[in-house]
Design brief:
It holds the Pfam family RES. With 166 residues, this protein is an alpha+beta fold. It contains 3 helices and 8 strands, in the order E-E-H-E-H-E-E-H-E-E-E. Helix 3 links the parallel strand 5 and strand 6. It is globular, with a radius of gyration of 16 Å.
């Protein structure tokens, strides 16, 4: 697998996370360690974020049960911009965007976590492949530099989650 590492100065970049308000202050990765996602295994604390608020929204609403409208907050996080491993669509197995997620993805993510070289893993969104999410390794030494720079209530338009149960 050919991957590239983004190297830059010690500048900061902003990423976004849409989450239930009651959990918005917790960026420890505990939720993902308990309920693993596409890119991590159970027991591995990571934080799933998006490169913009729109992908953070889409990545959240695909997981909401029909007709449920939780109270949400949008977080803007500042992360170091010099420690990101970027995987492109072409770096991943052909079935990487399937649902449910193929096990190979959590294995790739687990190797990245255990390698411990980069704070962030940037991967294509399986919802919109032209956009990206960043998975943050909460155990990486640079994670202490991650800061919540803004937290705002996010009223969810009910039309986004109105679904017919079949």
């Amino acid at each position: 697998m050919d991957v590239s590492t983004t190297e830059s100065s010690a500048e900061q970049m902003q990423v976004y996370r849409l989450t239930k308000s009651k959990y918005a202050g917790d960026i420890s990765g505990t939720g993902a360690a308990i309920n693993p996602g596409r890119w991590n295994r159970k027991g591995s604390p990571v934080l799933y974020t998006g490169i913009n608020p729109e992908i953070a929204l889409l990545e959240t609403i695909v997981h909401l049960p029909p007709m449920l409208s939780p109270v949400l907050d949008m977080l803007t996080l500042e992360i170091p911009d010099d420690s990101t491993l970027t995987l492109q669509d072409s770096d991943l197995p052909a079935n990487w965007s399937d649902y449910p997620a193929p096990t190979i993805l959590s294995e790739i993510g687990q190797r990245w976590i255990e390698n411990g070289k980069q704070l962030a893993l940037q991967v294509p969104s399986c919802i919109i492949k032209t956009s990206s999410i960043l998975v943050l390794n909460c155990q990486h030494p640079k994670y202490r530099e991650v800061k919540i720079v803004e937290r705002t209530p996010f009223p969810l338009d009910p039309r986004l989650i109105k679904q017919t149960i079949r």
